[in-house]
Amino acid sequence: MSQTFRVMIHLRLELGMKHYEHAYPDTDIVLLEPDHRDAEMYLANTFSYGQRRQMAEHAYQQTRQMLRSRRSTLSVKLARHRVNLNMDVLDDPRKPLVSQRLTATRIGRAMARLEEVMEDLSHCIDEKTVRAGLA
User: Fold this and answer.
1) pTM of the model
2) What is the helix (H) or strand (E) element at residue 40, kind and residue range?
């Protein structure tokens, strides 16, 4: 089901991009997509709450890497719109999507607890699906 949704969304995206190219011919369009060869991105179960944080971190790191590799062409295009890439952030190999310090705050602890509850709920739904013979 995940793959079906990905294909449907990508087809809609392609149609939308073609429309924008024709409707706004003198506009800079920058589309950032995951590498189609990135197995970790494309084989992940997008319906699994437990994998979402790991998938988001992976996507963040891959996007940072892609921005670094395309910095020369993107910088020129973005500069025309007064947007700059923050190279200090892009070049920092230890920069995570979400800081681990978040769990030291009240909201961070609440988010961690919510994540645990959602993971438990995901497992319960999976078990009921298997028992009902729907998997």
Assistant:
1) 0.63
2) helix 39-42
The DSSP secondary structure of 79-91, one letter per residue, reads HTTT----HHHHH
Distances (CA, A) of 64 to 12, 78, 109, 112: 25, 16, 27, 25
Between residues 19 and 111, which one has the greater pLDDT? 19
CB atoms within 10 A of CB 102: 12
Give the residue from 47, 75, 46 showing the smallest Cα distance to 59: 46
Distances 6 to 3, 29, 52, 79 between C-alpha atoms, Å: 5, 21, 15, 32
Query: Would residue 82 be called left, alpha or beta, if left means φ above 0 and alpha means ψ between -120 and 50 degrees?
Result: left
71-121 tens-digit pLDDT: 999 999 999 999 999 999 899 988 888 766 555 677 777 877 887 888 778
Distance set, CA 48 to CA 54, 83, 93 (Å): 11, 35, 27
